[in-house]
Design a protein that fits this description.
Radius of gyration: 24 Å
Order of helices and strands: HHHHHHHHHHHHH
Number of helices: 13
Largest sheet: none
Mean pLDDT: 82
Shape: globular
Helix content: over 70%
Low-confidence stretches: none
Structural class: mainly alpha
Length: about 325
């Protein structure tokens, strides 16, 4: 167990270092000067003087070579300092803390919607393989994968907010305001997981121990949900764990559509404003969530199937 934790921790640190280097480098290769862009926004669209631009670059160390800037940034990160926003002149950590809860709330709700749809749909489709319910489930899954989030979001707004008037369009703070964004974000993931649950269940249902359980006279519900589904969940757990990180990325579009003040809208605004510290802090946070999710998936493996050891999971 401890060897597994040490190995995964070392791997996680390498991943975070790689992500930080790539993100830091790409930000400096994107078109546009952050000093000019931010000063122009602060001055209401007027072009700043060359002296003001130079003072901004000196103040934030933008004249130093990129490797030196990266080392200084990593040093600040190791001391718990995500620096300050160029544009708002407030600590990046405070900006993230103010926005992280709406995004996590949306991601968890979307995950719940996805699992509530995909698990029963995938099992039902596998049990009725080759029949009309199976075809309908596969068609719905294909439709869910094909629909863009922004299109589905606007469609739900038109139907449930503008036409029926039963759900609010935007904002946070109540369960009703979470329903449409969660359904919008969770539908695409539900389609992916449904197809995976179906294929995994079909493989398990052909195993000998399932035939033995049926031969013993066990009820079909017990055979399917207690014996087959548990073993079919191993590949599903992998996808669900990885998809949680993708839900955070998908929240970027959904938060803009529903005007939710989360990490997604903060990231988009920071990118357009060339607010480097905010972008780098957010990307590092999302990468850390991916790493922690994968670590949790490996732990869950062990408890779903005791035959999987921590040594095998760390390979």
């Amino acid at each position: 167990m401890w060897k597994f934790i040490v190995r995964r921790t070392a791997t996680a640190l390498l991943v975070l270092v790689g992500v930080s280097i790539l993100t830091y480098a790409l930000m400096f290769f994107t078109p546009g000067d952050p000093a000019t862009t931010i000063l122009r926004k602060q001055m209401g669209g007027r072009t700043p003087s060359s002296m003001a631009v130079q003072q901004f670059r000196v103040q934030h160390g933008l004249n130093d070579p990129i490797p030196i800037q990266y080392v200084n940034w990593v040093w600040d990160i190791l001391h718990g300092n995500l620096r300050q926003s160029y544009y708002e002149n407030t600590p990046v950590s405070a900006m993230i803390m103010n926005r992280v809860w709406p995004t996590l709330e949306l991601a968890v709700a979307a995950m719940a919607v996805s699992l509530a749809i995909s698990l029963p749909a995938g099992v039902f489709s596998a049990v009725h393989k080759g029949k009309m319910p199976d075809y309908l489930s596969q068609f719905a899954a294909l439709l869910g994968v094909s629909m863009p989030n922004f299109w589905l979001g606007y469609l739900l707004i038109i139907v449930f907010s503008l036409e029926l008037g039963v759900l609010p369009v935007s904002g946070v703070g109540s369960f009703e305001r979470l329903i449409l964004p969660a359904v919008t974000l969770g539908t695409g993931m539900a389609a992916i997981v449904t197809r995976l649950v179906r294929s995994s269940m079909l493989e398990v249902l052909d195993d000998e121990y399932i035939r033995t359980a049926r031969a013993k006279g066990l009820r079909e519900r017990i055979v399917v949900y207690k014996h087959a589904l548990r073993n079919a969940l191993i590949p599903v757990v992998t996808i669900v764990g990885l998809q949680f990180g993708y839900l955070l990325n998908g929240a970027v579009v959904v938060e803009i559509v529903f005007q939710r003040p989360g990490l997604g809208s903060l990231l988009i605004n920071a990118i357009f404003a060339r607010d480097y510290p905010v972008v780098q802090g957010l990307v590092l946070l999302i990468a850390a969530i991916f790493v922690l999710t994968n670590f949790a998936v490996d732990i869950v493996y062990r408890y779903i199937d005791p035959r999987i050891s921590f040594e095998g999971a760390s390979a």
